[in-house]
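Assess this:
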Amino acid sequence: MKYFILLFVIICFAGCSKSTGVMSIGKDNYMISTDVSTEFYAPSDAVKKSIEEATLYCNSLDKDIFVENIQNTNNDNNISSNCTLIFQCVDKK
């Protein structure tokens, strides 16, 4: 139930952010890319939103997230920030 509440909160605040959603990029490897408007969010919020969505995805599989790579970039005018996150969902210990 708590995951549904968290998902609802994320959706409510998603108006100024865009996400590709979780995409499979190979066996047990996933990627998500998130853009946020720096008018409403700090540039680091792109990373936070990507990790939150990836964690929800892994939790839905009853697994934990393992982050392989994070790239966070700002556009030239500092109007938006983008995060590309590559991760795996691994068995819980």
In short: The chain is about 30% helix and 45% strand.
